[in-house]
Amino acid sequence: MGAPFRQLTPYAWVTQSRVYTTNAGVFLDAGEAYLLDPGITPTELDAVATFVAAHGADVRGIVVTHAHWDHLLGPTRFPRARVFAAAGYAAVVSEHGDDLVRQVAAWRSADGQPGLDVFVPPAPDVMFDDRICIHLGARSLRLMIARGHAPDHVVLYEPSAGLLWAGDMLSDVEIPMVMDTFSHYLQTLDRLSHLDVRVLVPGHGTVTDDAVEIRGRFERDQAYLAAMRECVAHAVADGASLIETVTRCSEVQFAQPDTYPNAHLWNIEQAYSEMGGRAPGVVGWAQDWLTEGAAC
Ligand SMILES: [Zn+2]
C-alpha cells in the first residue's frame, strides 16, 4: 500500500513517501498528468501510476526538482513521460552520476530491495535556464530555477492557487542545506518571498496553507542563512581557521539540531569555502557525495 493522496487544489495532489517524508506531486487535468519527484519505492511509484490511471489521465511529463538521488527514481517508472529539469542538472549528473548510482544502490540494499535494475540517472528531455511554463488545461505550471540547496534546484509555482512546490527548501523537518552557495540560497528565498504563496509544499515534511506558518518558514530560513553568512564572513575576515570558524558559528541557532547533526557543520564549512577561507581538503557538502545513501 502506498500513502494516501491529498488533494491540494482542484488539479493538484500530494502523496508522501515513507522515505525522508518526501513529497510527490501529481498535477492532473483533462486527461493529462504531470508529476513532480513522484515517489521513491516501487510501491509508491506504482501507486502514482494507479492514481493517474484511475483519473483517466496519461502521464505527459515529470519534473525533477534536482539531481539528488531521492528525487530521481520516478522517470524510469514512466518511460514515455518527458522529463523536465534545470539546465544545471546535466553538469551535476556528469560530475556525480556514479555517486548517484552508488547512493541508490546503497539505499536499496539497506531497504531490502534487491534485484531491481541498476539505477540510471534520468536523461531530461527538456532543460531550461531561468523558467519555463507547463500548460495544464487553463493553468500554467511555472518551473523556476531556484539555486541554493543545489545548483540545479527547481521550484514549481502555480499562481491561481498560490501553490509553491519548494523542492528541498522551506521545510518543517529540515534546516536549509546549502549544497550550492549561501548567496544563491538567500537570493532565491528573497525572490520567492515576494510571491503570493497560499499553499506551500516542501520537498520533505509538512504541507501547509497556514499564512503564519508559511511566513514563519521563510523568515526562519532567511534568518538562519543570513546569520550564518555574517558569522562566517567575520571569521574569514579575521583570518580564522576552519576549525576556529566552526567553533564560532556552531553558536548560530537553528531548528532541528538533533535531526541532521552534520548539516549545520557542513553549512559552516560550505560558507567558509564560499567566502574565501582556506579549507583543508574536502569540506562542506562535497562530503555528502562520498556518503552512501546520503543527501535529500
Ligand atoms: Zn536535495
Which second-level CATH architecture applies? Answer: 4-Layer Sandwich
The domain tally reads 1
Query: SSE string, helix = H, strand = E?
Result: EEEEHEEHEEEEEHEHHH
What portion of residues belong to β-strands?
15-25%
Describe the biggest sheet?
A: 7 strands, mixed
The side-by-side strand order for the widest beta sheet comes to: 1-2-3-4-5-6-7
- CATH superfamily membership: Ribonuclease Z/Hydroxyacylglutathione hydrolase-like
Helix content: 25-40%
Tally of DSSP helical segments: 6
Round the Cα radius of gyration to an integer and report it.
19 Å
Q: How many strands?
A: 12
Shape: globular
**How far apart lie the N and C ends?**
23 Å
Give average pLDDT, whole number: 93
Question: Could you say which small molecules are bound to this protein?
Answer: zinc ion
Low-confidence stretches: none
CATH topology: Metallo-beta-lactamase, Chain A
Describe it.
With 296 residues, this protein is α/β, with parallel strands linked by helices. It has a single domain (5-290), classed as Ribonuclease Z/Hydroxyacylglutathione hydrolase-like (Metallo-beta-lactamase, Chain A, 4-Layer Sandwich), CATH 3.60.15.10. Helix content is 33%, strand content 20%. It is built from six helices and twelve strands. The protein has helices spanning 42-54, 89-111, 182-193, 211-237, 242-249, 261-274; strands at 5-9, 12-16, 23-29, 32-36, 58-63, 82-86, 126-128, 131-136, 139-145, 154-158, 163-165, 199-201. Strands 1-2-3-4-5-6-7 form a seven-stranded mixed β-sheet, with helices on one face. It has a five-stranded mixed β-sheet with strand order 8-9-10-11-12, with no helix packed on it. A hairpin with a 6-residue loop joins strand 2 (12-16) and strand 3 (23-29). Helix 4 packs across helix 6. The protein starts with a strand and ends in a 22-residue tail after the last helix. The model has no long low-confidence stretch (mean pLDDT 93). Zinc ion binds next to loops.
